[in-house]
Amino acid sequence: MTGVASIALVGAVGATAHATPPEGVSAVILSQTTIGGTDYILREITVAPGGSTGWHYHDGTLYAYVRQGQISHYGSDCAIDQTGGPGAAFVERAGMGNIHLERNEGTEPQILDVLYVLPAGSPLSEDAPNPGCPFN
Predict the structure, then answer these.
(1) In this structure, are strands 110-119 and 56-57 parallel, antiparallel, or unpaired?
(2) Contact 12/92 with Cβ under 8 angstroms?
(3) What is the pLDDT of residue 19?
(4) Are β-strands 126-127 and 56-57 bridged in parallel, bridged antiparallel, or unpaired?
């Protein structure tokens, strides 16, 4: 995996009927390779102040590194399950049972380095409906 020195979290959003769309999120792929049926994709993700990834889950595991800003990561129970600032690292587990949302509740852009470890050909994320939380 050439160029994969950073690890991080958060995802792009796919397309389903009742999904919550991302707002204020941009991303660029820094490195991508497939080895033995597994895609390894390193992305830089920026979430603007007030932005959100929308509710989603992943078909594989993501490894996250916060380069700038503060993260507020919510689980499907509407509670914050991960927080941190620059230098924090965390993991997002795979599967529909791990629906989540990342919000930037701060005043500066969040910059995350995200390593996606996915079954080959899987989307970066799968959209999910809001699980009943009072926010998107």
Answers:
(1) unpaired
(2) no
(3) 64
(4) antiparallel
Exposure string for 91-127, b = 16+ CB within 10 A, e = fewer: ebebeeebbbbbbbbbeeebbbbbbbbbeeebbbbbb
At 37, the amino acid letter reads G
CB 6 within 8 A of CB 115: yes
Distances in whole angstroms, Cα of residue 46 to Cα of each of 24, 40, 42, 65, 78: 8, 19, 13, 12, 22
Rounded CA gap, 73 and 83, in Å? 6
Residue 21 is predicted with a pLDDT of: 87
C-alpha–C-alpha distance, residues 42 and 33, integer Å:
9
The pLDDT value given to residue 1: 42
Q: What is the C-alpha radius of gyration for the chain, rounded to an integer number of angstroms?
A: 14
Mean pLDDT split into 10-residue runs, the chain, 136 residues? 39 46 95 98 97 97 97 96 94 96 95 98 96 93
Side chain identity, residue 49:
P
- Give the residue from 87, 36, 86, 89 showing the smallest Cα distance to 62: 89
Cα–Cα dist 31/115, whole Å: 9
User: What is the pLDDT at residue 18?
Assistant: 52
